[in-house]
């Protein structure tokens, strides 16, 4: 069943992307590999949203597991027709794909907001922990000379921009793959049903 093989391929790709999202989100909690900023609650509000762990991670692992299992789905089918059972399984994979779309969409939105808002850091001008780039609406991304305003954690702007960008890209790819599986699941389900009706 070519639709099942396609679903399995999508599933394995989603599995890798979800694991990468989890790792990237965990790294956001430890700027420069230091744990003290997390323990002192000096992390940005979008870092703590778990968008890579929960959204791009666990909510994408669910459809990944479903899609990987579709290829080996040897259910008995309905009314004794195996194709019908497989088509039902393909159609049910559409629901799992919607879960993946919700998770990856959450990851995309929070990553975009994190990039736009900028990091939470200690600045030499204010002598306090603030969000120095909120007014720029993401314009700070191209004003590298202003990045030095953040003194602590060191290189926090580069750290946040890199990891939020990675999560944004990973979430975008996950979203596209889940959307492809929605189309694949609908086509596979409908084709399976047509084949089983023809056999009758």
From TrEMBL:
Pfam families: L6_membrane (PF05805). The chain crosses the membrane at residues 12-30, 50-70, 91-115, 161-180. Its main location: membrane. Keywords: Membrane, Transmembrane, Transmembrane helix. One of its GO terms (cellular component) is membrane. It is a multi-pass membrane protein. It is found in: Membrane. The keyword Transmembrane applies. Belongs to the L6 tetraspanin family. This is Transmembrane 4 L6 family member 1.
